[in-house]
Amino acid sequence: MKKFALLLLLQITFGYSQTNDDEQMLNAIYKSALTESHCYSWLDDLSNKIGQRLSGSKGAEQAVLYTKQQMETLGLDKVYLQEVMVPKWVRGKKETAYLKVADQIYNFPICALGMSVATPKNGISANIIEVKSLDELKLLGSNKVKGKIIFFNRPMNPEFIETFRAYGSCVDQRSSGAREAGKLGAVGVIVRSMNLRLDDFPHTGMTNYGDTAIEDRIPAAAISTNGAEKLSKLLKNNSNSSFYFNQSCQAFEDVLSYNVIGEITGSEHPERIMVVGGHLDSWDLGDGSQDDGAGCVQSMTVLELFKKINYKPKNTIRVVLFMNEENGVKGGLKYEEESAKNKENHIFALESDSGGFTPRGFSIESDEKNYQKIASWKNLFEPYLIHIFIQGHSGTDIGPIKSNKIVKVGLQPDSQRYFDYHHAANDTFDSVNKRELELGAATMTSLMYLIDKYGIE
After folding, report:
1. Which of 248, 282, 303 delimits the end of a domain?
2. Cα-Cα-Cα-Cα dihedral of 162, 167, 169, 175, to 10°?
């Protein structure tokens, strides 16, 4: 009786009713995704035939051409490339690092942080100081920091069930550590990898020098979590030991790349645009299957499934594979720039950039009325074990999109294992489960269908 009353209230409030048609449509979407989609094979090609897709790289260029070709096979109304200038940063030869204690050498797995400068040709050797935070660094002051290497060793907080919250609680040392340490005269920075698991994979990610002059920038590298634990223990008894690291990364002038766009024109309101997307670029250590090849192929699958089940959307449905999320967000910013220039009206945007794991629900950026509207569809998703409908961040690439009225949503997969792979060499195709990937694509398509059918408030 209570459930009936709630549904009746929703019908009165939003002016629509959920029918058996919606249940049948979601059933058709999930069935098609799990039995006949190209989602997994597309990711196989992106990962194993192309590989890493760092902005400005040959892999990124090949991925643009590949995804454009695949969308053209779907019979969409439009498939095109949108020019965008992106950073070009090259890692160079494999990085090396060791701690010298008396006559003994302890080697550590490290990798340069994205956009970092190189060390001198022969590397850097200096005393190393361990800190847990930027605040602790600043308390030391320039007298204690000058000429030293700073070791940021604050782990992701394991108490947080939401792993993205744990990530957010410590990522400032990676993004800002080199900038702040450099101001105090440090000669280099080593940062504990953003990873809840103890392993030997260093995790890269962008470091941001802000307005620091190029000649004043200091090199920054990530150390694996096992390496961080070992280094910390050694320093407790050998605080004056010398740490050495060497990296040869290099930044070049921005180069031309592209966002890849495909769309089905709306049958009733072609001027209303609904975007679904992920970022096509990846870091260069693995092949970017989880981050964010999964989101790209899931987004392409949304249009593939609409075609397969013969659903003709009322609004224009547009897939955007954004370039350069990892080290600049130039693709997302360029997309909004062009949208504003063309006076486009976006009503909805959905992003998948949290890995290809089992979908759990959605994170929704909207006013209260639209949040309640989307949350009211929860019963339709329950048969597929989708239960999270929360208010929160949607996505980095769709973040810049502006319209008079727009709702933004992020797909929320199970995130417990995501940071085991995030930005690391083990972010490879074998880490992705075919069924989980397809379930995510079906979940995205189902929400796109419901928004298309019932609109936003």
Report:
1. 248
2. -160
